[in-house]
Design goal:
The protein is mostly helical and 167 residues long. The chain has one domain: Transferase(Phosphotransferase), domain 1, CATH 1.10.510. 38% of the residues lie in helices and 6% in strands. It is built from 7 helices and 2 strands; from the N terminus they run αααααααββ. α3 crosses α6 and α6 packs antiparallel against α7.
Length: 167
Amino acid sequence: MALTAGTKIDLFEVLGLLGAGGPDGPTVTLHDQTDPGHVLGTVGYMSPEQVRGKAGDHRADIFAIGGILYEMLTGKRAFRKPTSTEAMTAILNEDLPGVWQIVPSTPPALLRIVHRCLEENPELRFQSASDLAFALEALSESGSSSVAAINHDSRTIGCAQPQQPLW
């Protein structure tokens, strides 16, 4: 695939998250829109609003990207459970172990990005892929991290400065 200015990429298609399914759970090919009352998507990457059968928007994709980032950083699938029902229940009711608990050297700014993507409330997530891309680009350009805290669901998770940057 040749990429030129203005080319749009369907991240989920590229990553194989849509289609016939596989070892990571059932998938459903999405059409133009998700109708309210229908639950569609790869269960482990579904946003809370999708699990509830509500109409989803682009912020559901931001949640899924947060799940992918979580998996990339920790090596563990977010909300991985033995059954789809248990995974959907976890998405709605369980807190993920913090990335910093699994990989303490993760830069605090990256932790904030992942946690913001995985916010239960879509209003608290990045509001566009452009906003997320800007945050990731700023992180890669800064090349530094400091002691910080992540505010998530009214609790503060402290993070120590990593010994060595991951990049």
